[in-house]
Amino acid sequence: MAEVDNELQRHAVEAQTAQTDGFHLVIDALKLNGIENIYGLPGIPVTDLARLAQANGMRVISFRHEQNAGNAAAIAGFLTQKPGVCLTVSAPGFLNGLTALANATTNCFPMILISGSSEREIVDLQQGDYEEMDQLAIARPHAKAAFRVLHAEDIGVGVARAIRAAVSGRPGGVYLDLPAKLLAQSMEAEKGRNSLIKVVDPAPRQLPAPDSIDRAVALLKSAKRPLILLGKGAAYARADADIRALVEKTGIPYLPMSMAKGLLPDTHPQSASAARSYVLAEADVVMLVGARLNWLLSHGKGKTWGKPKQFIQIDISPTEMDSNVAIEAPVVGDIGSCVKALLEKVGNGFPKPGAEWLNAVDERKDKNLAKMAETLSKETSPMNFHSALRVLKDVVKENPGISFVNEGANTLDYARAVIDMYEPRKRLDVGTWGVMGVGMGYAVAAAVETNKPVLALCGDSAFGFSGMEVETICRYDLPICIVIFNNNGVYKGVDVNPTGGKDPAVTMFVKGARYDKMMEAFGGVGHNVTTPAELDAAVKEALRSGRPTLVNAVIDPAAGTESGRLTNLNPQSSASK
Ligand code: ADP
To answer: How high is the pLDDT of residue 566?
Structure first.
């Protein structure tokens, strides 16, 4: 009996004196809050953090460049409604990750950039530490919130605050600064455990005011030519069934923004995508659901918007209202709650829009769809964007559950119009900034988070920003098929150096480059294709096998337009006109 007592006493003492440290507390805090994956790049001072995270059952995906890891974390946030976590080393690694953090914040994706940093005392006196940088100050303007933790017992609070800031209200990017010294700090294990916080209700519902719902429904009812515009906020909100019910009960034509494609299938009879210009110009009342009137929507004014409009806007951020034009009926709240409240109010007897409006939209759609079908059916040699896209359009139709990542200029613009999406949150693209370089990060995270195949369609220029991650894709053996529309250059591949000198024109790449060899170099599958039939066979084989694949699709170098559809944003010198 005495022996048992002694043994119990020994355990009690050990339990009291058992130690933990900053490394373990960070990992425990993340795991406690259901965060399972880390996207990052190990190095001083976070190598052991990454190692221990893996040892403790987290999935740690190590990239070749922090920006791609950050983009992966950002899109993981969009896909899961949990903050995607990116881990970087100090100074340059942190700065590389910061681009992705800023992009996440701009796109309203929840993400936490955790970065190791140098000694505070040395940094603040600017005494020249290894990778010295005041990272917190630099991160602040690019993030929704930024925190630094100096004491191990505050790690729980730091992680909890970061999670809440990332996912509550309008989601965004959060920076969490962890100085090297903190990670090595030790404290009693039990005290450490007790200091951690499991965040309760991290993204609380925000119910709309009832009078805002009344106002919105009254305006909708008064409309002669109503339009619903769905943005990626609506896709993020995961209110898919209610959004569909609202669209169908009201009978109003709708337009999805690019990352809202598939929220309802693009083939839905009420989709007005094929009559986009017409409905934007003609509508009299537009209901925005999780979409901002930013540059992507010509700020809600000008020629694009044609006839005078009244706007209803559903958004979680009250200050989004009136940011570009007057919003007659603001509905502030989370999309799930707002749409539910609208549905209740709309009931079953909502008057459908008049036949004149619906017929006019359908007429436009039919005409444009017929024109598109004709363009797609043309056999061209070499392939152009459309003959290649015809193949991918059918692939996505046959595999609606795969994620489709898309970046580029022409490759993006044409694909967005041609490729129908059938399921929510499957189209992942350049987003609010229209930025290139997100391709491989998004593809990796989509594969990791969904456990389903990914088709990543990139222009040759766009791919260059994150191309080295083909090694990551091979290393983790991810079911990703990359298709590169290769037309030898930025926009197109036929520019010449105006001086006649030896250097190539500034928008040109190596002619006939074989990007497929990059994938082969790391043990993946490469294909070089020059016809739609070859493209079809290569992509289908990739989806069947699930092996990392890169298809170099040779496109007519003369195909493509300057800046894709953004010609208006590209100032041109009067000399080159
Ligand atoms: P798009 O680029 O597709 O037009 P934006 O990124 O411009 O979409 O707009 C998304 C909007 O959705 C943002 O204004 C954001 O505040 C809002 N939003 C994001 N999540 C929610 C949510 N759960 N409930 C309500 N609004 C949301």
So the answer is: 75
